[in-house]
Amino acid sequence: MLSDAATQQFIPVLKTLFSENGVTAELYEAPFDAMELEVINPASGLYAFEPDVVLLIHSIQALRARYYEQGMSPEFDRMLRIWDALAANSAARIVQCNFPLPYERPFGQFDQKLQQSLYAETRLLNARIALAAGERANILVCDIESVASYVGRKHWFDERLWDMSKTFCSLEFLPQAAQAMVDLVLAGLGRIVKCVILDLDNTLWGGVVGDLGPMHVEIGPHGDGEAFYRLQKFLLSLKKRGIVLAVCSKNELSNALAVFEQNPGMVLKRDDIAVFAVNWDNKADNIRAIRDTLEIGFDSLLFLDDNAFERNLVRNFLPEVIVPELPDDPADYVRAVAELNLFETTAFSAEDAARSESYRQEADRRQAQNSYTDVSEFLKSLDMRIRVGRFEPAQIGRISQLFLRSNQFNLTTHRYTEAECTAMMEDEHCIPLCASLSDRFGDHGLISIAVAWPQGDLMRISDWLMSCRVLGRGVEEYLMNHLFSMARERGVRRVSGEYLPSAKNGMVKDFWRRFGFENTAGALWEIEVSAYVPGTTWINPAGIDSESEKHD
Question: CA spacing 20 to 30 A to 209: which of 4, 234, 252, 403?
Fold first, then answer.
């Protein structure tokens, strides 16, 4: 933590918030108002600490003092120098807090036109911070201004505390500021909501469809249905940014589908929902079925239901699932969910935007599989095509996402930032491979990563992870064959790998043994290249697009 405000009060709050999310955080608190001194000195305590994340907490009060002395023009350049120095000396992800807008406006509302005041220039500085951060993969912006605006500047600032102890804000709202920072860090660790599971009656629309019929439930842009219409608009925006939508409802499936297909007031259509679990079974079991279909963790699921009994049942049987209280009035549903700030992310890619469609394609694949009695025949029928190659600049965002978010099929669960992924891409001693898969139903996108390091007669595989959406398709066999082909061409005699157990990756505990590796010591596994037996796979190469493809 580097700040031009006192940060002592942040320490216990940050540690508590991280602990509540199962993360043990070690914090280094730089000396007061010593940002430049810490970042430009390679021997500083900051770099000795070897941080994973650097929080840059700027206060409007300190900015105000500098502004009245020297104007605003040096501030942005000062910030860029700090970023550049950090990037040159550390691979840590930078979380840059923006500035709460001050309350003083010497020109009143005319300042909106004149743009010559601390208020106007701070707003411009925040905009420049956001634009510059968007051009740098390793920098996230913590929107403290939005937190301060939500509670109100009248309450956010405590000038008396600032004068006495340089306290960042009113102590009442320090936890909100800290929570905003923690949310970003947790998102960087892959702690994100991936799916929103929705009840139907009196949650997604007003009334009970079984009683009213599909055309008479309350949904539309005006009147009694507007609250539900607003919720659906919000959910559609989540779907467009990569959050998967599913339905879990006690209803007749035909009645539920009729609303999606026939009611003109519906914002969400049938194709917007990846999984329907509509029956009379208990909702905990249905959520388990949804989770099994999507193959994501329970802690990545958010369940919205107007019924307190159903919420408590799911909390009791599936404690990892996020189940917020919903207000009695549906007009407040969107605000209640938005206040929880559950949808933080550190990147957005084309794969994110297409995620819901990819799950629908997966449902089609499973339906097609039911028509085959022989797995091999089904896999051949998919006409799978794979593209394997070194990391490329355009893929770095998605590659970092996979490192940060993949938990189950992940041999070591190392978490790499975009800057660290770029460093591997540019390292001539590293073989950083990524794989994209498509079939006759559609494109899975980038689904697997394997990173290898040739060292003399040994090739060490340091990382291997894969999206669970393509389990059982032969991707791991194809990649392993590919790596051993490269090893033979390079004259490597032995290949080693590592398995580091985590709370979620038990499914791959026997991964190396499955390919003939033997456990040599602790987490290490090894095999002679001459002893490797190529695995059978029905996947064909999509084309030779990189140097590494030539080794197939």
Answer: 234
